[in-house]
Each structure stands twice: as structure tokens, then as C-alpha cells.
Design a protein that fits this description.
about 50% helix, single chain, alpha/beta
């Protein structure tokens, strides 16, 4: 009677190259043996280029075990016992247990005894022990060889982007990839300038043709991996020193970037081991407090299987008061505040009163900026004329100044030119920010919900500070509490027709149009006050206007009664 069988073959790269244990040869020998022993191989399983030391990496062997549990099979055929495993523990725990439970046979084509599941298990134990020892010895030899090669400055493994793997004198080396090395140099230069994020660096080099295999810009995590790789400086990192630090070795390959540029990038990317970024992508930094009193800190976290980059906020438990800490996702916070802003309504008549003030403020800023720019430009023209004339007089020998006085005067004029040019740049830069703030307020008055959703992170933070009084998060119960400033809590329940919601208004102070107008006007004033636009320093107060609707128990500005302190403890 013909017995149904399955075949398993495995070969690692080293064995195939050194000993010639090719999969085709194994399969051919096993088929010949099966035909001569009344066995029919109905399914073939092969692990190509895999070490037999770890069962979890042998996907085809796992598939074989699943297959024989679901189908009536008489035996498993292998070319040699060590093909099925080089780990004695894994072999007995997984494959051998499965075969014995199913009352099957394990046949080896080339071992002294073909039936490895016979009553005498001594031979099988010896064969698997030898295979396991050989695997361990191979690992030791490989490790020693790699450490020796690394100590000589050769990179172990696949060459990073910008280099190519080559063979020389029987050994693997890496050489510069002339087509991609310039892109690597530009990535470091752009990020090292301090003017680019990793995202913008990726987009810039994408324009030059630096793209992934799908023709798309490389993701941020790939750019970060490049910026962290010391190989580009001509060095390699292999193993650890006795103190636990990374072992850095001078490499044999040619560097793509200088050591100084790499250090500059490291300084920009990290600050004492912490991310260097200053909350440029974290909307709610310095806004949400934990119940212990600390601000929640924003941090990046990768999704499962690198599904994406997410931002979370959590308390770092500096006071050691939490037994359980769970962060809150930025997307959850976005949804919460989008809903809150969608429920705020500013009366139409207040909008009509505020907008003319904003337009007038814009005109005043433009007029002041234009005056400063024209005055500076006129003085720059005068200085250029003076410098040119003085140089001509000196060349002709008609200068009334000594060489020392001439040089001093020239330095003073050049310094003044530099200051004027910087003033013009600063005026334009700061007033651009003021324009943006006023534009945000204009949009905020007209369409609060869409303005907040589409605002930049900087403007979102400004609107949140204007609207929110206190935001807390309980890291143990995962409860977020948002306390709006009384004015906006009242405005939140106004309908389009400006009728108060009957069910909720009784618990809130009534808010007048004048109160809203005063509050918004104060915020506009803060936006407009600037030392550049007024040509002098101004003290900007951020106190709330003295108005009883802004306080819980009517305590005036600067007054802290016992009742007020009880309701409003100092942070």
C-alpha cells in the first residue's frame, strides 16, 4: 500500500555555498527514496536561505505542521535530520511532538537509520544534539569572524543608500554610489542648515530624483534613519564597549559627509538625548495639565507594524503620584476641540463692531511699516553715497581724515548699514506675523469652526489660549475636562438667532455684547502691540478685563478673597 508523504527541505546560504546542499538536490534524492519505499509525496515544503536554529523563522516548516494536522499523512521525508531543525529544544517541542501525536513517521534519506521515529530514540537524540552543537559552533565562528572584520573597518551587512556592496579579495566591501551619494550629501546639508524639517528635506531631494521604489518621496522615518547613520562619515558602529556605549570604528570606505556636518545635524536632531523639535507639530503642548499639576508632554509613537506616526500626550509622572499612566492621542484632542469651537457663536452685531477696528489697525500697521521702510531706505542711499565719495577722495589724496579716522568712520557706516538692513527685514517679518494674527481673528469672527480646523498650529495654540481657561486630563480614568473662559462658555450655547438655550442658560452667567466686544478688543490690542510697528517697547498685559462675568464669585482684578481662592487655587 502506497503511503502518503510530505517533503521538507531547507538550506541556509552558507551551506549552499560551502557544502552544495542545494534544494534541488535534496528534493531529487527524497523523491527517489520515496518511490523506492512505496511512498507518494503529495506536498512539498521548503525554507530557502533560512537557519534551522529558530523555529519561528521557518515559515514553511510551520506550514507543514499545520498541513499534517488537517490531512491524513503517513510520514514526513527529509534529506537529513538536521534539515528539519538545528535546535534540539525547538525540534522536540514543535515538530517531533506533532509527528508523534499524529502517529506518523519521520524518514531521513541519508542518515544511518532512515526511520527517526523508531523505538530506539538514542540515534535521533545524538543526531539532533550534533546538529544543535554544530549550529552553536557556527554562530561562534561567524561572530568571531564578523568582529575581526568590523575591527578592521569593514561594514557588516547591507550597504546603506549612497553606497554599494562589492566583492574584493574574497571579502565584502562597500563603495560610494556616485548616483545617490550627492542626494545623501544634500539631505545632510539641508537639515544641517536649520531651515528644514525632515519632511521638507524629503520633498526637496524628491525634486532632484531621490525617490523610493514606487517613485514617491521617502518617508520621514527613512530620512531620520539616514541622518542618524554614522556610516556616512566614514566610520562604522559594531558591538558595545565595556561601559555599554556603542563601539565606533574608523571604516575602510570613503565618507560622503564631514564629521563636523554630522555633529551639527546631531545637535539639531537631538538635545541631550531628547528630541530637538520645539513643539512644531504638537498643538497642545503647554496647554493640558495632568491632575497632579504637570503639563502633559507630547511625543511621537509608531503605530503597529509601522502603520503611521502618531502624537500622544501623557504625564511623565515626575512627582511619582501615578500608578497607571495612559496618554491621549492628538487626533482625539482635535476632534474634541473641533466640536467645542463648532458650538461657539459670536453675536452678529459684535462682529460688525470689531471688523472696522481690525481694518483700521491693518491700515495703521501698513502706514507705520511703510514709514520705517522708506526712512531706512533713504538713509541707506545716503550712506552708500558717503562711502563712495569718501573712497574716491582717499584715492585722489584729498581725504581730510587720517587713515585711522577713515577706517573708524567706514566701520561705523558699515555697521549702520547692517542695522538698517536688519531693521527692514525684521519689520517685514514681524508685521507679517501681525497680519496673520489679525487675519485669523477676522476669520474667527466670521466662521469659528472652519477657522480653527484650518488654522496653523501656531494660530490654533493662540485661539486655544484665548478661549480655554483650563484643560485637565486624568491619566488614570482617561477623562479630559475642558473649562472655557466664562464668556465663551456663555457664547457656546447661543443659537444662530441669538436666543439662549432654555435648558442650559440658567447655569451660566448672562453675557452682554459689550462684554464680548471688550474681551475681543483686548485680544486684538495684544496682537497689535509690537516694538517694531511702534518703534518703541510696549508693556503688554495679558490680564483679563475687569468684568464681573469673567470671575466665579465677582472678585475684581487682583482681588483674591477667601471664597475666590477656594474656587480658584493658584496653579
Amino acid at each position: 500500500m502506497v503511503k502518503k508523504a510530505v517533503y521538507y527541505g531547507r538550506v541556509s546560504t552558507e551551506e549552499q555555498a560551502v557544502n552544495g546542499y542545494s534544494l534541488d538536490m535534496q528534493k531529487e534524492k527524497c523523491i527517489e527514496w520515496a518511490n523506492s519505499h512505496d511512498c507518494e509525496i503529495v506536498e512539498f515544503f521548503e525554507d530557502r536561505g533560512k537557519s534551522g536554529s529558530d523555529y519561528k523563522n521557518l515559515k514553511s516548516l510551520q506550514a507543514l505542521n499545520k498541513y499534517i494536522r488537517k490531512n491524513r499523512i503517513s510520514c514526513v521525508i527529509v534529506w537529513k535530520a538536521d534539515r528539519i531543525s538545528r535546535n534540539i529544544t525547538d525540534f522536540y517541542a514543535y515538530t517531533y511532538k506533532n509527528i508523534k501525536d499524529l502517529d506518523m513517521k519521520l524518514f531521513s534519506v541519508t542518515d544511518p537509520v532512515n526511520d527517526l521515529t523508531s523505538e530506539n530514540q538514542t540515534l535521533l537524540g545524538c543526531l539532533m544534539g550534533i546538529a544543535s552543537d554544530e549550529s552553536l559552533n557556527t554562530k561562534k565562528r561567524t561572530k568571531a569572524t564578523m568582529e575581526h572584520r568590523a575591527g578592521q573597518g569593514y561594514l557588516m551587512g547591507k550597504a546603506p543608500i549612497g553606497y554599494l556592496n562589492k566583492r574584493a579579495d574574497g571579502h565584502g566591501i562597500i563603495v560610494k554610489d556616485e548616483t545617490k551619494a550627492p542626494h545623501i550629501m544634500k539631505i545632510f546639508s539641508l537639515y544641517g542648515s536649520g531651515q528644514h524639517t525632515m519632511k521638507s528635506v524629503s520633498l526637496e531631494v524628491y525634486k532632484d530624483g531621490f525617490r523610493d521604489k514606487n517613485g514617491k518621496p521617502y518617508p520621514v522615518r527613512k530620512i531620520e534613519h539616514i541622518l542618524k547613520n554614522i556610516v556616512y562619515t566614514g566610520k562604522i558602529k559594531y558591538g558595545k564597549n565595556e561601559d555599554g556605549t556603542d563601539r565606533i570604528i574608523q571604516g575602510k570606505h570613503e565618507p560622503i559627509i564631514s564629521q563636523s556636518l554630522f555633529r551639527k545635524v546631531e545637535a539639531l536632531r537631538r538635545n541631550d538625548g531628547q528630541p530637538y523639535a520645539t513643539h512644531t507639530d504638537k498643538t497642545y503642548s503647554k496647554l493640558i495639565r495632568c491632575k497632579c499639576g504637570c503639563f502633559l508632554t507630547g511625543y511621537h509613537s509608531k503605530g503597529e507594524h509601522n502603520s503611521g506616526d502618531y502624537i500622544y500626550y501623557k504625564c511623565h509622572n515626575k512627582k511619582q503620584v501615578h500608578t497607571y499612566i495612559k496618554g491621549i492621542k492628538q487626533e482625539t484632542l482635535d476632534d474634541t476641540f473641533n466640536n467645542i469651537f463648532a458650538e461657539i457663536h459670536i453675536p452678529k452685531k459684535v462682529v460688525e463692531m470689531i471688523k472696522p477696528q481690525l481694518i483700521k489697525a491693518l491700515d495703521e500697521i501698513y502706514s507705520t511699516e511703510n514709514q520705517v521702510y522708506m526712512s531706512n531706505t533713504k538713509r541707506l542711499t545716503e550712506l552708500n553715497t558717503l562711502i563712495k565719495k569718501s573712497n574716491e577722495e582717499r584715492l585722489l589724496g584729498n581725504s581730510p581724515l587720517s587713515n585711522e579716522d577713515f577706517d573708524r568712520q567706514m566701520r561705523e557706516w558699515e555697521d549702520e548699514k547692517t542695522r538698517l538692513l536688519e531693521d527692514n527685514k525684521t519689520v517685514a517679518k514681524v508685521n507679517k506675523t501681525v497680519y496673520s494674527n489679525i487675519d485669523t481673528l477676522m476669520k474667527f469672527l466670521s466662521n469659528i469652526e472652519d477657522t480653527y480646523k484650518n488654522a496653523s498650529i501656531e494660530n490654533k495654540q493662540r485661539l486655544l489660549r484665548m478661549v480655554c481657561d483650563k484643560v485637565t486630563y486624568d491619566t488614570e480614568t482617561e477623562e479630559l475636562t475642558v473649562k472655557l473662559k466664562p464668556i465663551f462658555q456663555a457664547l457656546r450655547i447661543l443659537k444662530d438667532n441669538e436666543n439662549l438655550c432654555s435648558k442650559k442658560v440658567t447655569t451660566l452667567p448672562k453675557v452682554s455684547s459689550k462684554t464680548v466686544l471688550d474681551y475681543l478688543a483686548k485680544n486684538i490690542e495684544i496682537s497689535l502691540k509690537n516694538k517694531v510697528t511702534t518703534l518703541k517697547k510696549l508693556s503688554i498685559t495679558e490680564k483679563e478685563p475687569t468684568n464681573e462675568t469673567l470671575f466665579v464669585n465677582g472678585a475684581g482684578d487682583g482681588v483674591r478673597t477667601h471664597e475666590y481662592r477656594n474656587h480658584n487655587p493658584r496653579p
